[in-house]
Design brief:
alpha+beta, HIT family, subunit A, five-stranded antiparallel beta sheet, 31% helix, globular
Length: 140
């Protein structure tokens, strides 16, 4: 996998406005924010998609995300926000390194989403459940 902009930030080749850093996680302000306080949270483990993360890196992200959300809310004055995480180009992932966006919703600024719900048929639910349970039994 070629170096991404996040690899260059992790390597110190490109500066960033650091919000938080520990041995597993780096959080910094997005340079193209959707709203004031838009923050990116990345693992230091260099993988493209969430399912490729080690359990340790995933746990580190999970531990720090709520704290970072609280900081973003307090600093931005927002009372609502989105946490966005995309996997793969068809799912709108532009940088091929796992990352989470914390996007404050301030008036009309922030993330806009279109949502077109479908219908879950019972027979489809049963086959999905069987396949998911089997995958979980085999380690994911």
């Amino acid at each position: 996998m070629p170096d991404t902009i996040f690899d260059k930030i992790l390597d110190g080749e490109i500066p960033c406005h650091r919000v938080y850093e520990d041995e597993h996680v780096l959080a910094f302000l997005d340079i193209g924010p959707l709203s004031r306080g838009h923050t990116l949270v990345i693992p230091k483990e260099r993988v493209a998609r969430l399912h490729e993360l080690s359990d340790e890196a995933a746990a580190a992200l999970g531990r720090v995300l709520p704290r970072l959300c609280r900081a973003v809310l307090k600093a931005s004055g927002a009372t609502a926000y989105n946490v966005l995480q995309n996997n793969g180009k068809p799912a709108h992932q532009e940088v091929q390194h796992v990352h989470f966006h914390i996007i404050p919703k301030i008036n009309n600024d922030g993330l806009g989403i279109g949502w077109k719900p479908g219908e879950l048929r019972n027979d489809d639910a049963e086959s999905l459940l069987a396949a998911m349970h089997e995958a979980l039994e085999n380690g994911g």
